[in-house]
User: Which sequence fits this backbone?
């Protein structure tokens, strides 16, 4: 459904961030992207949402080069959840309407429930949400665009263990509904719990099988804040 | 007009206040005495040169083309000044110059088109100068503010873009806030005029012996024009700069923020 093929990314200052990465995201599956800091995981996710443009290789969505698609349409079908929950001023309702200005309260409430929140939260001032609630609101907001793929950039790194597990369960539920999930994490225990497939990136490239096995066996690492 | 002729003796008398400033600087050890003297000397040289050139331009027998040339030079120099005051704003030289050109074109079209003032060097040059001077300050403020806002709120803007917003939609709340910052001071000074301060043009007219009610109507017209000019210039800067800060495929470019 979403395929990264030999993707290269070079930064504005000439540094190579990705050097030929291959990853495939399939419907109904959670693909975990693991690897040390600076391996290029977040950059790859941004390429998937076209917030970054690859300097080489190609990203295909349903077989079509995403460079030929309208980025606004692509981004609604390939949603993104950021590491730090981004909430805008106003209420939860206002936040959700950033994704769909025409949605009524019933539709917004249904999306909150899908993300594991009480629909009564619509009137809550978004700045008053806990970290876990804020991240779920961000997921509900991303779901309002009816994406087929969700790119999740360390969505639990700022959360306590209970909320972390809750978001993981939500990720699995969304995959069970048919979404393709690409989930970035540093947490190897989480990678094992969550991933139908685990792809390890090292130094901007796919780790070879031995490297990946060594990395995954290197012990549980907690999310880095 | 003899009442406004202060002469060399009057000018020399005003230096008493400069001496007071230098004295205060020395007393409080502000180490500003040299700066004060340098600023006063520089202002005198600049104004005498400008005055001499203005005399040529404002001479009733001189061609009005000289006045238009003067305005063109003002537009170019205002663009350079904006660039120097906001070097971190990409493409500000061209945008600033375009904004000042737009301001001059619109304001002088209104002033001269409606016959508010005659088409003469003595009207074109000072009026254009006032419009440009006020618009330049607001343009610098807005340009810097837009870059600052988009840089500080990068997370929020990218979250909007990631939801499928176009770049104008994603930037709108932040650009709007920057435009308000540029326009509010002008609105406030328009509200406070007469109550808190007497504006320069009106003061000049009254000192020159013009009837107070005539001075008021001229000043009001100028203030309205300045308000419109500031709004026009920051709109040009706002629209043009925001377009420059995003790519055509709706991505926010990397920004360098320089803290003043």
Assistant:
């Amino acid at each position: 459904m979403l395929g990264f093929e030999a993707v290269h990314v070079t930064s504005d200052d000439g540094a190579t961030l990705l050097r030929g990465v291959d990853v495939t995201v399939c419907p109904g599956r959670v693909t975990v992207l693991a690897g040390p800091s600076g391996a290029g995981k977040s950059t790859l996710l941004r390429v998937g949402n076209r917030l970054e443009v690859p300097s080489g290789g190609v990203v295909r969505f349903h077989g079509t080069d995403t460079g030929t698609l309208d980025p606004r349409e692509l981004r609604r079908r390939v949603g993104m959840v950021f590491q730090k929950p981004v909430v805008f001023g106003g209420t939860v309702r206002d936040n959700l309407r950033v994704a769909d200005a025409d949605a009524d309260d019933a539709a917004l409430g249904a999306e909150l429930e899908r993300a594991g929140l009480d629909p009564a939260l619509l009137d809550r001032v978004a700045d008053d949400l806990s970290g876990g609630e804020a991240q779920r609101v961000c997921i509900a907001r991303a779901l309002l665009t009816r994406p087929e793929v969700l790119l999740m950039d360390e969505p639990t790194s700022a959360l306590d263990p209970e909320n972390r597990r809750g978001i993981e369960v939500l990720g699995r539920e969304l995959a069970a509904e048919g979404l393709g999930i690409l989930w970035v994490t540093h947490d190897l225990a989480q990678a094992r719990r969550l991933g139908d497939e685990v792809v390890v990136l090292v130094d901007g490239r796919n780790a070879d099988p031995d490297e990946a096995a060594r990395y995954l066996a290197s012990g549980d690492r907690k999310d880095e804040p | 007009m003899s009442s406004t002729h202060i002469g060399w003796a009057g000018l020399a008398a005003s230096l008493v206040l400069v001496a007071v400033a230098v004295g205060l600087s020395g007393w409080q050890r502000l180490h500003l005495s040299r700066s004060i003297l340098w600023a006063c000397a520089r202002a005198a040289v600049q104004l005498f040169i400008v005055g001499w050139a203005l005399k040529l331009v404002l001479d009733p027998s001189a061609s009005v083309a000289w006045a238009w040339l003067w305005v063109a030079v003002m537009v170019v120099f205002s663009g350079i000044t904006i660039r120097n005051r906001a070097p971190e704003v990409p493409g500000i030289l061209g945008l600033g110059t375009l904004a000042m050109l737009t301001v001059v074109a619109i304001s002088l079209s209104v002033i001269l088109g409606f016959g508010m003032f005659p088409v003469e060097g003595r009207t074109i040059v000072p009026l254009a100068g006032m419009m440009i001077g006020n618009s330049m300050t607001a343009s610098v403020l807005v340009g810097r503010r837009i870059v600052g806002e988009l840089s500080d709120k990068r997370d929020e803007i990218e979250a909007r873009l990631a939801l499928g917003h176009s770049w104008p939609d994603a930037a709108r709340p932040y650009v709007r806030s920057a435009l308000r910052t540029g326009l509010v001071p002008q609105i406030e000074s328009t509200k406070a005029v007469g109550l808190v301060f007497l504006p320069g043009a009106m003061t000049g007219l009254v000192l020159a012996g013009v009837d107070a009610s005539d001075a008021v109507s001229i000043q009001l017209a100028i203030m309205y024009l300045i308000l419109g000019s500031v709004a026009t210039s920051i709109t040009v800067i706002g629209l043009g700069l925001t377009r420059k800060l995003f790519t055509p495929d709706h991505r926010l470019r990397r920004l360098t923020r320089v803290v003043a």
